[in-house]
Structures are given as structure tokens and as C-alpha cells.
């Protein structure tokens, strides 16, 4: 695959990168390089245009005010939406997930339009924040191992008819609507509430993004021991009696 190049775009690290979500771009980059791919990583600050020619876009979580600013700038810029209509693969976390939806409630308590790339609407939960470890079973169509991560969000997310639940929680709140769903996806756009960073805890999701971007069914195996140790340790901690 050495002639194949992959353009990975990390969107707004200055506004959206809580809980080490930047680790997601490092994991995608590393796992693609381990397969001999030539990776071009582009970090796009919020005062820069989002390039439309990326293969994979990653967008992280954020506090409420930076989340509103990011949504305003992404709407104004239009680059991420154009990339999505070109078929780019987009993976989003928490605030990033809410921004990709139809709308969310911003830090001023107002309805803020999202980019409408995922058919979800986020509101503010009445109850306390959803905080803690999560274990969930990922949509079986994606053939991925159990999802591990942690969540910390006030928003709750309702799925519309064209968004499929990314996973179903065994432990934790996920979308927080009480229906047991966590995250959402359509064929090219993914959203999750999981931090961790989630792709370090679930490297097969990073591989899925690379496969979708390259339109291949499989990638050569790589050494997963370090990831497996991390997963085992976090799953044990999450399931340990309080
Ligand atoms: N501000 C959003 C919420 O609380 C997202 C939080 C986050 O990204 N961790 O719902």
C-alpha cells in the first residue's frame, strides 16, 4: 500500500480537544503508517478554512462556549460540509458529535444549528451530567469489538430516522435518552460520546475509518498487544464493583 496516501484532517484542535481527543488523530495516523500508507496530517485551526480534499476528518469534544464558536465557524466556512458531500469519512466525539447533528442547545440556552451531517438533535438533559465509564456493543454491521470509553456531557442526543445507533450501552448512558443507544452513524459520518481517547481504546474503529476511506475490506494485521492491555485494564476497571 506504500503508494497509497491518506489525508487526515484534525478539525479545530484550538476549540475542540478535551480529554486527549487529539489522541484519535495520532492513532489513525500511526495505524495507517503501520500499513505502509503515506499519511498527510492536516491540523486546521478555527481561523483557517477546512480543506475539502481530506479522506478522514476527526473532530473532538469541547466545553459549551468553544462548542458554539466551533459550530458558528464550521457553518460559515462550509468546508467540512463540502468534504462530507464529497464522501469523506468523518469521526466525531461529544461536542463534535453534537455539532454534526441538526441542532444542539448552546451555552446561552439557545437552539444552535449544527451542520446536519448526522440525523440527530441534541438537547440538554434534565438530570445530572452523564459522567463515567461506558461499555457498549457496537452495531453488528460494523463487526467491531466492544466499545470502551468514558463520557462527560450534559447534552442528550435523539436519533432521527436516517441515523443508526453506533452502539448499545451495557454500562453508562451514551446518548442519554434512556433508550440505551450510544452515538450515531450513517455510511460515512460517525458520532460518539466516548472519550478515552476513544480510538486508542478501540483501535479497530481507527482501522474501520481507514478501510472506509480507502474502500478496502481488510488491512494487514499489526501488533495490537499494547492496545489489548489498555482495553483489558479499562474494561476491568469499568466492571469492577464500586
Ligand atoms: N458541551 C457538551 C455537553 O456537555 C459536550 C461536552 C464534551 O464534549 N465533553 O453536552
Automatic annotation (TrEMBL):
Task: Output the SUPFAM superfamilies linked to this UniProt entry.
Answer: Class I glutamine amidotransferase-like
Which residues are substrate-binding?
Answer: 129
Q: Which Gene Ontology BP terms does the record give? A: cell wall organization; cobalamin biosynthetic process; peptidoglycan biosynthetic process; regulation of cell shape
Report the superkingdom from the record: Bacteria
| Pathway(s) served | Cell wall biogenesis; peptidoglycan biosynthesis
Q: Which Gene3D superfamilies match?
A: 3.40.50.880
**CobB/CobQ-like glutamine amidotransferase domain: from which residue to which, for each copy?**
7-202
| Keyword terms | Cell shape, Cell wall biogenesis/degradation, Glutamine amidotransferase, Hydrolase, Ligase, Peptidoglycan synthesis
What the entry lists under CDD domains is as follows: GATase1_CobQ
Q: EC?
A: 6.3.5.13, 3.5.1.2
The protein's annotated catalytic reaction(s) are:
beta-D-GlcNAc-(1->4)-Mur2Ac(oyl-L-Ala-gamma-D-Glu-L-Lys-D-Ala-D-Ala)-di-trans,octa-cis-undecaprenyl diphosphate + L-glutamine + ATP + H2O = beta-D-GlcNAc-(1->4)-Mur2Ac(oyl-L-Ala-D-isoglutaminyl-L-Lys-D-Ala-D-Ala)-di-trans,octa-cis-undecaprenyl diphosphate + L-glutamate + ADP + phosphate + H(+); L-glutamine + H2O = L-glutamate + NH4(+)
Q: Which residues carry out catalysis?
A: 94 (nucleophile), 195
A single GO molecular function term of this UniProt record:
glutaminase activity
The family classification in the record reads: Belongs to the CobB/CobQ family. GatD subfamily.
Instruction: Tell me the subunit arrangement.
Output: Forms a heterodimer with MurT.
Its biological purpose: The lipid II isoglutaminyl synthase complex catalyzes the formation of alpha-D-isoglutamine in the cell wall lipid II stem peptide. The GatD subunit catalyzes the hydrolysis of glutamine to glutamate and ammonia. The resulting ammonia molecule is channeled to the active site of MurT.
Question: What is the designated name of this protein?
Answer: Lipid II isoglutaminyl synthase (glutamine-hydrolyzing) subunit GatD
Please report the organism this UniProt entry assigns to the protein.
Streptomyces tardus
Amino acid at each position: 500500500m506504500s503508494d497509497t496516501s491518506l489525508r487526515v484532517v484534525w478539525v479545530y484542535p484550538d476549540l475542540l480537544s478535551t480529554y486527549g481527543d487529539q489522541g484519535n488523530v495520532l492513532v489513525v495516523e500511526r495505524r495507517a503508517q503501520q500499513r505502509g500508507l503515506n499519511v498527510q496530517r492536516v491540523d486546521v485551526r478555527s481561523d483557517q478554512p477546512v480543506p475539502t480534499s481530506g479522506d478522514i476528518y476527526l473532530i473532538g469534544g469541547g466545553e459549551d462556549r468553544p462548542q458554539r464558536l466551533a459550530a458558528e465557524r464550521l457553518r460559515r466556512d462550509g468546508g467540512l460540509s463540502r468534504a462530507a458531500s464529497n464522501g469523506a469519512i468523518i469521526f466525531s466525539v461529544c461536542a463534535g458529535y453534537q455539532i454534526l447533528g441538526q441542532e444542539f442547545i448552546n451555552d446561552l440556552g439557545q437552539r444552535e444549528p449544527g451542520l446536519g451531517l448526522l440525523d440527530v438533535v441534541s438537547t440538554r438533559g434534565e438530570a445530572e451530567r452523564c459522567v463515567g465509564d461506558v461499555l457498549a456493543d457496537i452495531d453488528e454491521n460494523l463487526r467491531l469489538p466492544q466499545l470502551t470509553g468514558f463520557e462527560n456531557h450534559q447534552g442528550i442526543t435523539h436519533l432521527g430516522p436516517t441515523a443508526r445507533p453506533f452502539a448499545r450501552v451495557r454500562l453508562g448512558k451514551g446518548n442519554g435518552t434512556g433508550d440505551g443507544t450510544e452515538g450515531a452513524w450513517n455510511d460515512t459520518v460517525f458520532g460518539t460520546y466516548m472519550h478515552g481517547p476513544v480510538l486508542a481504546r478501540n483501535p479497530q474503529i481507527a482501522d474501520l475509518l481507514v478501510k472506509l476511506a480507502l474502500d478496502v475490506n481488510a488491512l494487514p494485521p499489526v501488533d495490537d498487544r499494547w492496545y489489548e492491555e489498555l482495553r483489558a485494564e479499562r474494561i476491568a476497571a469499568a466492571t469492577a464493583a464500586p
